[in-house]
Design brief:
The chain has helices spanning 15-23, 36-39, 50-56, 67-79, 96-108, 121-127, 138-143, 145-149, 164-192, 197-204, 212-222, 233-250, 255-270, 279-286; strands spanning 5-9, 27-31, 45-46, 59-62, 87-90, 112-115, 118-119, 130-135, 152-159. The protein has two domains: 5-160, Rossmann fold (3-Layer(aba) Sandwich), CATH 3.40.50; 167-286, N-(1-d-carboxylethyl)-l-norvaline Dehydrogenase, domain 2 (Orthogonal Bundle), CATH 1.10.1040.10. Helix content is 53%, strand content 14%. It is globular, with a radius of gyration of 20 Å. The chain has 288 residues and is α/β, with parallel strands linked by helices. It has a six-stranded parallel sheet, sandwiched between helices. It has 14 helices and nine strands.
Length: 288
């Protein structure tokens, strides 16, 4: 056991598996608005509301859908007078502005807010190998190293300020989405020339064109037609929009970024509720 009372809020597709891994080595209390009792991992104690979590957990990990939800949770925690919570580690992809706003609210209430998004998908969450981008005091990262080891594969201290973790997360997801779009177009071109998809992937993956899409998404999800990466098109489109918003404010180059963002938004509109690997089908069928 880590010796620290830990809380986890948000037991969705990513949060549930991460909480399950934490529960193996920590005293864990959990709360999920969508139904804690049915989602609580083995070894964790399900609580009735957020206030109960604040009264029982020194550190609370958040894994929620967006910045608005994250901010509302921080506001509720900050208003809780009998809380023992002194640190909140936000694993969500909220965007830079929301992360900074959450930090301001938490700081005013004497709560240490850590902007710490994760990457690795559902498979990484289940395996305990997600990468975590910690933006906040390095001393807190050291203090939490035991619990972090229980559900991550790599932890990087990326900066001291809220928003820096989000910046790295959204640029990473932009690159992931770009690889999937570009590989879809390249593979479709090859198929039009009579090339076999597997042969193309075998060559690409030992050549300079290899990327996360060619190494994982195509052989394991697209070529098999299972389309089961476990990450929604809507979330990829949202993350790329967050990246575009930040890029526009920063004034850095964005010609490729805008095109990729438009494609993801169009795919989300055409295939609502889809797994993001179905971008291949969208690109294939939209050109017919």
């Amino acid at each position: 056991m880590t010796g620290m009372n830990i809380g986890f809020v948000g037991l969705g597709d990513m949060g549930g598996p991460m909480a399950k891994n934490i529960a193996k080595s920590s005293t864990l209390v959990v709360y999920d608005k969508a139904g804690t009792s049915s989602r609580a991992p083995e070894g964790a104690t399900a609580l009735e509301d957020l206030a109960d979590v604040a009264r029982n957990a020194e550190t609370i990990f958040l894994s929620v859908p967006d910045g608005a939800v994250s901010i509302s949770i921080i506001e509720e925690l900050s208003a809780q007078e009998d809380r023992i919570t002194r640190c909140v580690v936000d694993l969500s992809t909220t965007g830079m502005d929301a992360s900074r706003e959450a930090w301001e609210i938490a700081d005013a209430a004497g709560i240490i807010y850590i902007d710490a998004p994760v990457s690795g998908g559902q498979a990484g969450a289940r395996a305990g190998t997600v990468s975590l981008m910690w933006a906040g005091p390095e001393t807190e990262m050291t203090r939490h190293q035991d619990v972090l080891k229980s559900f991550t594969g790599n932890v990087f201290h990326v900066g001291d300020k809220a928003g820096q973790g989000q910046a790295l997360k959204v640029l990473n997801n932009f690159l992931s989405g770009t690889a999937l779009v570009a590989t879809s177009e390249a593979v479709l071109f090859g198929m039009s020339q009579g090339l076999d998809m597997k042969v193309m992937l075998d060559v690409i993956n030992v050549s300079t064109g290899q990327n996360t899409a060619s190494r994982d998404k195509f052989p394991a999800r697209i070529m098999t037609e299972t389309y089961d990466a476990g990450f929604k098109t809507a979330l990829e489109a949202k993350d790329v929009r967050l990246y575009m918003d930040a890029l526009t404010r920063a004034g850095t180059p964005g010609r490729v970024s805008k095109l990729v963002s438009d494609i993801w938004n169009e795919c989300d509109e055409a295939l609502p509720g889809s797994d993001f690997t179905r971008i291949f089908e969208y690109i294939r069928d939209s050109e017919e």
